[in-house]
Sequence to fold (439 residues):
Amino acid sequence: MNFIFQPKFRIAAWMLLLTTIFSCNSIGPAGLFKKMSPHETYGNRLKTAGLQQTAMGGLWLQTADQSLGKALHISIPYKETGFFAAERIQAATFQFAAKRGEKLYISLSKNPAQNFNVFVDIWQQSNLNRVLAFADTTGKPLLVEVKQDGIYLLRLQPELLRSGEYTLTIQSGPALAFPVAESGKPNIGSFFGVDRDGGSRKHEGIDIFAKKGTPALAAVNGTAQPGENKLGGKVVFIRPDDADYTLYYAHLDSQLVHNGQHVLVGDTVGLVGNTGNARTTPSHLHFGIYTNGGAVNPLTFVAPITKKPEAITASLKNLNATVRTENRSRLYTEPTEKASVKEALPEGTALHVDAAAKSFYKVTLPNGQAGYLSSKAVSSVNAPLKKLVLKTQQPLYNQPDTLSPKKLILTAGKPVNVLANFEAFYLVEDGNETGWVRK
Fold:
């Protein structure tokens, strides 16, 4: 059962039409001027075929745009398993914070693996006019290096008339490899921004302490330039092949690269020491990152921590099903009871289960409000709450709204089963049809 908007499309005819349209490789004039994401290509083909004027095509494009303003808050790492139904026009959009120097690892597994394409696109919230990154249609994980601290949006949207289950996993880790070999038992002991020389300057990097002579490793593919200066002693700069910053290795005991040498991740560029102004300190590598705007905190770039998302423990049997709250429940902004409460839901409130994350369900109310609540707070609507005998003739509405289409007219004295409720309406069934009547 699905109480959310279900457009009554002629699915077989639409499938034939879409197959005909998308068997053509042409993507229209827009493809001549810029590389388009798979989602943009698909949307462009709908427009080129004039399908944006149809109820289904227009709603797919509208849903894609509107979903960016309805993103649900999540924290990285994150994992959810959800279901996209062919009869529903859907998009799932998530909002999360990310820091410069992080690398996002985004994977999407699908069931069925074939003939069920889900588009994955990412934006920075401050610039929704340009897709920052997108997944191709091969199903390979998407890797995104975060170039600027900020809020990011990720959208999932399936092709029209495709059903399937998906599992989205988002993890984060350092954008660069760790610059000191594990053999030296490295540990970070001094951080960016702390005072130096009695407060006359700030520390422009991190200090990674390790045994003297431990290999200092290239954290990225790039071009090396050894040198020497008063503060850093023996140093090596590395200019990455595909980044707009420079890595700085200081206090080396020795340099093992020559000027202009191309190095690969993991190559030894020098040995950890205490040259320069570190002569009186234990051996360590001063590691810094410099941009055109000056030094940036390198910790996020190399911190050797990749968090894993919590396992999904909520039952998947309710995916794409209508359920109801067993008691008065709370709808949260994120899948944790520490998150803000979006709404207090009365007992028996009808919900559609879109996905499962940790021990929570991601749900949608009949009015389109979405959020998370404990999976233990809901039950199936298969067993009626009560029997109701209608006192007067009543329309059976498609939605809990008197302006929604009427499915049929129920006569006075008609007994119906009450399955759930929402605001001033009951969700009922009369044996043949399911819909909404006023309380």
Summary: The chain has a mean pLDDT of 91. The domain at 316-380 is CATH 2.30.30.40 (SH3 type barrels.). The CA atoms of residues 186 and 210 lie 5 Å apart. Helices lie at 11-22, 38-48, 55-67, 299-302.
